[in-house]
Every structure is written in C-alpha cells, then in structure tokens.
C-alpha cells in the first residue's frame, strides 16, 4: 500500500485514545482500528473531515505517500 | 433496511421436506420403476429397460439431492443475513455442475426413450446450469464489491 495512514502519530500528539476518537468521529472502534492499522481500502471524505476536525489537523498530517511500500 | 427473511426461511424448510421426499423416492425407486415399466412397457418386459431407468433415476436423484442440499445452504445464509460469502459461490457452481450432468443423463435417456417431456427436462436443466454459473460469477463480483465497501471507512 503506497498511501499510509499516520493516525497513531496524530493520536499520540493529541493524547487521545482509540475509543474516544471513534466516539467523537462517529465511527465504530473496529473501523477506526482498521484505518489505524492501514487495513482500509479507502476513506470517505466525510470521515477524513471529521477526524481532521477532532484532531485539529490537515489531511496531509494523517496521510503519507510511501514509495517503498508499493 | 427491512429484510424479507421469512421467504428464505420457508424455502429452507421446503428444501428439507423435498430432501426427505427425494430420499424416500430413492429408497423406493426399484418398486416405483417396476410399477412404471409394468404400466408403460407391459409388452416388452425386458430387464434392460428396468435397469436403464433405475440407473438414470438413481444418478439424477442423487444429483438432485445434492442440488437441494446446496440450495438449503444458500437459503440458510440468506436467513443469517450473510448471502454474499464465497461458500455460496461454490454452492452455485456445484448446483450448475449437477444440473449440467442431469441434463446430460437425460440427453442419453432421450436417445434411447424419446419423449417430449424429456426434451423439456433437458432444456430446463441446461438453462438452469448456465443460469447458476452466471449467478455464481455475479455473486463473486458482489462479494468483491462488498469487501471493498466494508473496508471503506
């Protein structure tokens, strides 16, 4: 997977747990875990928007392109 | 979304009843065939006819039993609200193969004992077989889309 989700980094910076973030974003713990562990195939703009809003960050802070992972 | 679960549930029960009927018919097949031959082929009375009919009906009977079993599994997965699983694709392919073999068996029957109804049976099973293979491909594609959707957060 070329696109990596750096959610755990941002979560650590904001000192927020998985359950709390899932609750505030409005998705299940299981789905947030899939996203955090880079198992997701796609992310909806609405989910990304909500995560950015809760973590007070930009999409670029969450998503990175890793050439080696391709 | 409101699901119509009662229909596959009823169909699953119907499949079990049909399987019971099929097993009873298979057990009683020698007597059924003997009775039919006495009625339809009273003038010939050759042993070959009886053996041939028994062979055709046993083979198609066991295949029909397999079809009913696979159909029941599909209906059960519908009741459990998980119809898009690879097991159902396998079931549909097995039903397709069984229907195809039944079609071939009845084609050989049509060569030796041609009746118009045999022709209809061949046509129906050939069509059912092709339909099952297409449906299996559709299901496989649907599973692919479902997995993609499940992993879209």
**Terminal Cα separation of chain A, in Å?**
5 Å
* CATH class assignment of chain A: Mainly Alpha
Tell me the quaternary state: heterodimer
Structural class of chain A: mainly alpha
Give the percentage of residues in beta strands of chain A.
5-15%
Measured on Cα atoms, how large is the radius of gyration of chain B?
19 Å
How does the overall form of chain B come out from the CA principal axes? elongated
Strand percentage of chain B: under 5%
Mean pLDDT across residues of chain B: 89
Low-confidence stretches of chain A: none
H-E order of chain B: HHHHH
Q: Got a strand count of chain B?
A: 0
| CATH fold field value of chain A | 434 Repressor (Amino-terminal Domain)
Could you tell me the number of beta strands of chain A? Answer: 2
N-end to C-end Cα span of chain B? 20 Å
- Compute the average pLDDT of chain A: 88
Q: Strand count, sense and closure of the main sheet of chain B?
A: none
Task: Summarize the structure in words.
The complex is a heterodimer of chains A (70) and B (153). With 70 residues, chain A is mostly helical. Chain A has one domain: Orthogonal Bundle (434 Repressor (Amino-terminal Domain)). Chain A has helices spanning 7-14, 18-25, 29-36, 45-55, 59-62, and strands at residues 3-5, 63-65. In chain A, strands 1-2 form a two-stranded antiparallel sheet. In chain A, helix 2 (18-25) packs across helix 3. The longest helix of chain A is centred in the last third of the chain and has 11 residues, at 45-55. The radius of gyration of chain A is 11 Å and the shape is globular. Chain A starts with a strand and ends in a 5-residue tail after the last strand. The model of chain A has no long low-confidence stretch (mean pLDDT 88). By secondary structure, chain B is an all-alpha fold. Chain B has one domain (6-150). In chain B, 84% of the residues lie in helices and 0% in strands. Chain B has five helices and no strands. Chain B has helices spanning 6-27, 29-40, 47-79, 86-112, 116-150. The longest helix of chain B has 35 residues, at 116-150. The radius of gyration of chain B is 19 Å and the shape is elongated. Chain B starts with 5 loop residues before the first helix and ends with a helix. Classes of the chains: A mainly alpha (70), B mainly alpha (153). Chains A and B meet through helix 3 of A and loops of B.
